[in-house]
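Example record

The entry below shows one chain as it appears in the dataset: sequence first, then structure tokens.
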Amino acid sequence: MYTYMTNCTQLPEVDVLVVGGGSAGATAAIAAARQGARVALIERYGFLGGTGAMVLDTFYGFYTPGDKSRKVVGGIPDEVVDRLTAEGAAMLRPNTYGAGTGVTYDPELLKVIWEELVTEAGVQLLLHTICLDVLREDGAVCGAILGNKAGIFAIRAKVMVDASGDADAAAKAGAPFEPIGRDEQVQSLTTTFRLCNVDVERAKAVNKQELWDRMKAANQSGKYRLPREDGSVHITTIPGFMATNMVRISVPDPTDPLALSQAEVEGRRQALEYARFLRECVPGYERSQLATFSTQIGVRETRRIYGEYRLTREDVLDARRFPDAVAQCGAPIEDHHAGAGTHWEYVPDGGTYDIPYRCLVPRLVDGLLVAGRCLSATHAAHASVRSIAQCMAMGQAAGAAAALAARTGTAPRHVDTGVLRQHLVKLGAVLEGGA
């Protein structure tokens, strides 16, 4: 038996332990609990929602881009949107930058919605808690070592879901992953910010090309330093507020604490520069003021596991189907590389491709699933499938699969995907077609 330390407090055993309370992890915990599993969810911050609550205010990936937009994600993700909408805190926002219709919401209320859904499902929630290591028996993950203000704890679980974003638990368990930046530089990082006191009607009248032209002119003037010249800004659910996605910072390895710390500092510096640019160069922002920075810098890509299947660029652009599909995606490849622009490639004819269950199953390690942006995918495919709606859909699938594996005593890699797909349909998942 694997041991960590003799003075480690033992928490009650659970069926499913979910590491990370972002969009993927919170959805996974709810899905597993609704299948009758005893579930614990750990999150390092004091709230749920991850990037969706800390960095962004729009869910992309629910709808395909193009003139014939289709909804391709459903189930628990719909409940999140429905509750936000019922509170007057969400709206559909046609996107002119290429990603398709988004669901823009109030990120502060989103934290509460996630808490409500997790609590109602009966999930044991541990905030301000991190995964220090994993427990292993006979080559399989059987729990984790957790740390928080109270000390160090062990918790045993029949199945673990790694929804940390960075594949932290999977890496600790010895699951293989593509070395960060080995073949292609990971996507850039972004500190988002929101401005208040904006004349929204005048600001909305500035189209994206005019905004980009003003960015280029500002750089050429020598008075501003704007690394990205195709940044975006959009309306929010709060009157007088506009939200941005402009900052661009290239970091070879965002899991390097020193590099990440420097990026946080540089991100806020760039954010202030972009805010100054908007205030001085763009109509509608003359009286604007900085309202908020993102809670942390937005990280798009770090570790990507090697799973039983690896999603590829060809899978995305050929709109491929798989018999073990657990989710759909129609989002374009959106690669925020280190340059001044962004690379876009679209699924032809507004189509969609399948996300196979095998992309959530790490090679070589049993008792473990992943969900979210650390799935098994190439750099190009990841640039499409990382949208938050798809992360929720993957979480829904991983949670349902983990509960099924725990109940039947089956290794996650041997879960009957036909049965799993039936469970997902009952939860409301969209597995084919779309609406």
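Notes for this example: Residues 310 and 377 are 5 Å apart (CA to CA). The longest strand covers residues 151-162.
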